[in-house]
Specification:
The complex is a heterodimer of chains A (236) and B (113). Chain A is α/β, with parallel strands linked by helices. Chain A is built from 8 helices and 9 strands. Chain B is elongated, with a radius of gyration of 17 Å. The chains are: A alpha/beta (236), B alpha+beta (113). Chains A and B meet through strand 2, helix 1, helix 6 and helix 7 of A and helix 1, strand 1 and strand 6 of B.
Chain lengths: 236, 113
């Protein structure tokens, strides 16, 4: 039986008295996913560790990148996504790292096609890294695979411990949660255990690192995580 | 408003389907939308009306077919309905669950006159 209109025709394309029914069975994200797969293959072939950083605006993603770049000796490129301005790209560019700003305009997320074009404009090196700072938004970017090796969601202590269950799609899809601005914990009523429980409840496999990118506390755990994730592809 | 991007993709898919099947007008689009996707159906309906203007589906009705979220417990193998990513297994209370449906965003079929 045709499950859409309830008729008894078994063919995928069939006629009714007043309409013609055509089975399509296509994912709305198929095009994006195809571009993401092309990016993923490029990363694999060139042994590039690519990381998609996601968070709400103001969680400290750019500061985290700045402090990370300071510590890395490997070749690195950065893609910055924002609705407007090149302020983040300017900050990263001052560190001497190749950076490409994508302004999404009215768009609320980066997609895999944008990343592919940004990659063409960057001198990506074999065995290097690519950091992608997504648009600050805990909803839309969760849907769009960029082909990245890992998704890192940055949550800051000032946002409250319930963000993982308020925005479950984002935390469900992340490999690592970085709880940033830990230096502010003494001044906040932030329940660390509840935050971790909330993150684990939407994603039992999520890894968690607590740090202050600005003050340096916990950053070694993050550097260790990065190094560990790059090893399985090839030694660097 | 990622719903706009999704509807732009939908327009592209509908154009392709129309070309492949020699359609001139699409009158209805049957779309599977999983309960666990971060898609707002009212926003999707609005975006659909905007994005389909001057397309083969400009007069089309969008029929959204909700797909219930379902999870499989990795501990005891129980499968159960879940409205969230964080529903523990009702049988063994484990959080080690795997989503097996509810993340669909699929054009199932179209109707054309």
């Amino acid at each position: 039986m045709c499950t859409t209109c309830g008729c008894s025709d078994h063919t995928t394309t069939h006629n009714h008295d007043d309409h013609h029914l055509i089975q399509v069975e296509k994912d709305l994200l198929e095009k994006n996913n195809n571009y993401a797969q092309m990016n993923r293959e490029y990363f694999f072939e060139h042994n590039i560790l690519s990381i998609n950083f996601l968070s709400s605006p103001g969680s400290g993603k750019t500061t985290l990148l700045e402090k990370t770049i300071d510590q890395l000796s490997q070749p690195l490129c950065v893609i910055e996504g924002d609705q407007q301005t090149s302020r983040d790209a300017d900050r990263i560019g001052q560190l001497g790292v190749p950076v490409k700003q994508i302004n999404t305009g009215k768009g609320c997320h980066l997609d895999a096609h944008m990343i592919g074009h940004a990659m063409e404009a960057l001198p990506l090196s074999d065995n290097g890294l690519l950091f992608i700072e997504n648009v600050g938004n805990l909803v839309c970017p969760a849907l769009f695979d960029l082909g990245e090796n890992y998704r890192v969601v940055v949550l800051s202590t000032t946002e409250g411990e319930d963000k993982p269950i308020k925005y479950p799609n984002m935390f469900h899809s992340a490999d690592l949660m970085i709880l940033n601005k830990s230096d502010l914990l003494p001044h906040l009523e932030f329940n660390l255990d509840a935050c971790f429980d909330n993150a684990k409840s939407v994603n039992p496999n999520i890894e968690i690192i607590t740090c202050s990118a600005l003050r340096g506390h916990g950053m070694q755990d993050w550097f260790n995580w990065l190094e560990k994730k790059h090893f399985p592809q090839k030694k660097w | 408003m990622h719903e706009i991007s999704l509807c732009q993709n939908m327009r592209h898919i509908l154009d392709e389907a129309a070309q492949e099947n020699d359609l001139t007008v699409i009158s209805k689009v049957h779309l599977l939308v999983g309960d666990l996707t971060c898609v707002e159906t009212s926003a999707l309906e609005f975006a659909f009306s905007v994005c389909m203007k001057e397309s083969i589906a400009q007069e089309a009705e969008l029929h959204i077919i909700p797909v219930e979220g379902k999870a499989l417990c990795n501990q005891c193998g129980n499968s159960f309905a879940s409205k969230h990513f964080f529903t523990p297994c009702p049988r063994c209370e484990s959080n080690e669950i795997q989503i097996i449906s509810g993340e669909e965003l699929t054009i199932q079929s179209v109707e054309a006159h």
